[in-house]
Amino acid sequence: MRRLTVGTRGSKLALAQTNWVIRKIKEKYPELEVELRIIKTKGDKITDVPLAKVGGKGLFVKEIEEALLRGEVDLAVHSMKDVPTELPAGLEIALIPQRESPYDVVISKENKRLEDLPSNAKVGTSSLRRGAQLRAHRPDLRIENLRGNLDTRLRKLSEGLYDAIIVAEAGLLRLGLKETVRERLSLEVMLPAIGQGALAIEMREADTELKERLSFLHDEATAVCVAAERSFLATLGGGCQVPLAAHARLVDSKLVLQALIADPSGKRVLRGEREGSPQEARSMGRSLAEELLAQGGREILQTVYNADLG
Which member of 82, 104, 163, 263 is catalytic? Predict the structure, then answer.
């Protein structure tokens, strides 16, 4: 192993994440030559349409996966929340580094907390998940679509287009923007996206030696939590166009999984929780999904899938 090519998106956040991985690899193998290859994805090209209306899965990974399959890159670094539960044949999520913060945060123009925003304040988010939970918690706010990378979102806030925006804390921390955070939202107010704060290092299944050489990047505790969350998602068959959320954490060697299915209007939010051993991660995700489906989640998802998103 003398040379590695790493595929990634070209946003500042994607590059920060990928360069972190590359630094770790170079620390371990200083003689190794590592090249970064920027690949533009469909999600990068369509920036003026809400993600829910673009539809489909793998908006931010498909083109990178194709480069992996063609042998143009040796591994890819993704935000875990962007990775579909079904991967192309021959590829796998080989390694999952230690998770950064999974929480969502409030950034506001006048440095206000969510509870302090006045009625009818304009709050920007690109996520149906965030929008549904915000509408449930503060139905008096105006929730408006906000697409673009993190820099773009922060710029639109500073230009006065929004009173506040909701973004993932992990991205801010990775870009050294911790000081912009006004408030970290609790899990009761804003349950995170599946895999939020975690990275996925995707590789070809056949590259077992490379996987072994890079195994030092893997964090098993994070992998267990992500497995539970992604099992919940896989059972529901959902993607970014559906208001779903799940977050797992290890508490005193027990795995605690919280999840929800929401109506996009926020008028109906179904929440559930499971506790078990880390070895039960996937079965916990499946059973919690089935419970929420039986409680009315199936009707909610049916309505979302049948709605005219165009």
Answer: 82
Contact 54, 66 (CB under 8 A): no
The encoded tokens of residue 42 equal 């469909």
Element (H, E) at 225: helix 220-236
Say which amino acid occupies 224. Answer: V
pLDDT of residue 150: 86
Residue 239 is classified by DSSP as: -
**Res 238: pLDDT:** 62
The overall pTM is greater than 0.85? yes
263 catalytic residue (yes or no)? no
How far does Cα 21 stand from its chain's mean position? 18
Listed residue (301, 254, 257, 262) closest to 282, CA to CA: 257
Q: Which domains does the chain have, with CATH numbers?
A: 1-97+198-218 (3.40.190.10), 104-184 (3.40.190.10), 220-310 (3.30.160.40)
Q: Rounded CA gap, 132 and 299, in Å?
A: 16
